[in-house]
Amino acid sequence: MTLFLQQLVNGVALGSVYALVALGLTLVYGVLKVPNFAHGALYMLAAYVVYVMLEDVGAPYALAILASVLTIAVVGALMELVVFRHLHGKTPVHMMIAALGVLFFMEGTADVVWGPDFRPVPTPLDGVVTAFGINITEQRVLVILAAVASMVGLYLLLKRTLMGMSIEALAQDREGALLVGIDTRRVAVLTFAISGVLAAIAGSLIAPLVLVFPLMGAVVILKAFVIVILGGMGSVPGAIVGGYLLALAETMAGTYVAFAFSELIAFALLVMVLVFRPTGLFRKGV
Amino acid sequence: MGAARVKRLAALGAPLLAAILFPLVVDNPYLVSVAVTAYVTAIAVYGLDVLLGYTGQLSLAHAGFFGVGGYVVGILTSDYGFSFWTALPVALAVTSLLGHLIGLAALRTRHDYFAIFTLAVGVMIVIVIERWEGLTGGTDGLIGIPPPASIGPLSFTSLNAQYYLVLAFLVFTIYVVWALMHSLVGRTFLAVRNSEELARAVGIDTGRTHQLSFVISAALAALGGALYATFLGSIGPDVGDVPMTFNMLVYLMIGGVASLPGPLVGTLLIMGLMQALTAFQEYTMMILGPILVLVIIFFPHGIAGQGKVLFERLTGGRKGA
Hints:
Radius of gyration of chain A: 19 Å
Helix content of chain B: over 70%
Largest sheet of chain A: 2 strands, antiparallel
Number of helices of chain B: 14
Oligomer: heterodimer
Largest sheet of chain B: none
Distance between the termini of chain B: 16 Å
Largest interface: A-B, 41 and 40 residues
Helix content of chain A: over 70%
Number of strands of chain A: 4
Number of helices of chain A: 11
Strand content of chain A: under 5%
Shape of chain A: globular
């Protein structure tokens, strides 16, 4: 039972990161119809910003997270301004290939700047919380709490602010939004920036728990796509539920079946969902 | 025979003559082996073009099929005593069957979903290759794969002989793709790409068309992989991995999608440039990424697409096409 509880908490922590990455991906897809492969690179870059701030600058963790969120929001906005703005109206396959180009560029840049090695990130929170006979590192507690706070924040932003409502309007009908006077170009940039913030929070939270390397985003983006397809492309609740489901399935399979099996789960799930329910488990609706 | 036709024949004959003279003129074993690698890759890129260019679907498992073709030939020839000439049809059959089975599931989806689905398939193929150590040698791969056995007086032990054999396979591949595109089947491919609804409305079985295109594409990838394994003498999981698919996609997009010379032009140009600029190897991805984006935005038909416009202007346009 202790093992189960322990793995449950670990699964929830991992699921928090998956859900944050998937949220950014599903937001950009739902609003702008861009299947953004380069989203994983934003997550990778965020982890490197935290690494540089902690290791090279010696800044406190909170400042490192802030720097990472601001940097990646700008990078996300630039992605829209420089690349995807010019692809409006092209086929999804064209957008996907362009996104792959952006991914190459960012991974290649990280490889040139930091080299291909796996780098450990200093652990700012090394305490352990003991509850119900299980040990949880403070970092994991932070991951779970910060992720939930971000999701609540995203919900309030989308439902309660004018900016959020204009994003929803764009998701529902781009021409209609333009007709009622919404600056669709500005909203597109904002959507990419918010998606960057979500990737940055995920990358900053996970960095002290894993090793940082240029291809770390490639594995996560594939899982994020699985989650988003599982939850329905463009669905916000779908991304959250899908993220926790996939992480729990992986953690439990890794504990009770075999570790090698856990990395195949995402793909097995994807195959099953697409074969039996190609539109995803949830209906679309940002 | 009109003047335009003579010019078109010259446009076909000149590159072929250049390819035949290449090993004799450069007389450099390293460059010849680079050309061999580029040709086998180009064969697989033609397979990618059959799917992406002619039916409009992007498969990110393409290098996976390249790897399966290579591994089947490698395992059969080095462990089971098959000759290359008997192993090759087995490799093509196995990969086509695998492609057919994957297609049955994957082609329930289209466009971006299809690309993501096949990406997952590509990752799974590599996991299987890496984990099935008894058969595939795991992450070390297979070494000591023999070159093709002689056919009568034709022996393929010298590098130049291997070069000409690969060149023959490349010409055969280009001919197959050309013949396909000028057949009724090829025209149904284009109809399905341009509008699946319209194609269905005029009575085309669009499901079967996608399926056929996917299987042909997988088989051409396997042909490239099989030749790769036998001529390089070794194969590792890297050649079947997703980054290899990305490379092939870059060659195709830069060369020109849905055009006959496109896959060859793109593969030779980019692989050649990467060889010439080994000092910049570190920056390959940093350079290729933005180029890919620029091609998509400004030249969606690639070099061949731009070249075709120029060529048709020079030869006075295509008549009765």
